[in-house]
Amino acid sequence: MSFLDTEREVLERLLPGLDAALAGHPLATLERPGSPGVAAFRDAGGTALLVPGESSGIGASPLEAVRLQRAVGARCPSLAVATTMHHFSVAGLVEATRHGGGFAWMLLEAVVNDRLLLASGFAEGRTGQSVLRPAITAERRGDHIVLNGSKKPCSLARSMDVLTASVTMTDEDGTERLAVAIVPATADGVSVRPFWGNSVLAGAESEEVVLTDVALDPQMVVTTDVTAGSALDALHVAGFLWFELLMTAGYLGTASALAERVLRRGGGSAADRATLVTELDAAMLAVEAVAREMGEATGWGEALLVRALTARYAAQDAIARATPVALAALGGMSFIGSDEGTYLASAATGLAFHPPSRGRTAEALCAAVDGQALRVG
């Protein structure tokens, strides 16, 4: 068995042809704006990965999903980031259907039949701001709910068919509660503005999506009982679990692509190569352990989310240790001859920038392991 064989077997079994399609393009082509990776993902039926079998989807288990995502990240880091947001949105819709989300089940069937891509407009990317405080507001106006605000960055902004967005709605008593809105990309008032200025991960289409007086049918807004600073409900726990595990697996795949180059070329010492495999596979085993528990558990609670966050932060550390070892093992001529190694090393560090950041979560994690409710800030 070779490095990444297990992950690529899962990818080929669930999304036949995608690995070969991605491998057929140079890394630079896959990672630039307008990447062919998104179309390849759609053509392979990837939109249906987490849609349950009863809704005609693939119904991948959490363990299969994280292994597949590592394989995607090893071929196209931008696609791993972008599709994590799609899968995260789909998982949220699945959870919403279990809590009576009226329109969600119809959208899930369309995701399968029409291969719709879902962008995720959940709070992210604002320094010092709680990830549970969206930048999009919702208010009732007659028979509609009207949205205003923007999400930046928003992956799949150029290719999305639907935006699923967290929004704040104000109760009659003035309490702000979180809700999830389902917004067609073609709805009046939806626009996309350039935002991503870095060449790294540019293929993820992470631009700004702006909502200006977007009027929705109330059925397309799923309300929750969560307020800023409150404990998480089942919908948010499920969302965070999928997000943390899939994003972590994707970035581990990106770091693994760098390690794979070292293994194939025999670079560095045997101790160096063993270090790379040990660091990255051990981190992936932690992700897989949480994914297995997700697949076996009858319910997902805060304790499981604490373990997912632990695995994610441990993976960040493993990536930080492994990437410089890999670059050194590849050597100076590799550095001179191609920017692929430095690109992969840079892209792999992106995991540290996704919410919730370690600094903002440290106190909450300490409180959670001391028996208190987990509050993600």
Automatic annotation (TrEMBL):
Keyword Oxidoreductase: yes
Record keyword Membrane present: no
Source organism (scientific name): Streptomyces benahoarensis
GO MF assignments: acyl-CoA dehydrogenase activity; flavin adenine dinucleotide binding
All residue ranges annotated as the Acyl-CoA oxidase/dehydrogenase middle domain in the record: 121-214
Keywords: FAD, Flavoprotein, Oxidoreductase
Name this polypeptide is given: Acyl-CoA dehydrogenase
Gene3D superfamilies for the chain: Acyl-CoA dehydrogenase/oxidase, N-terminal domain, Butyryl-CoA Dehydrogenase, subunit A, domain 2
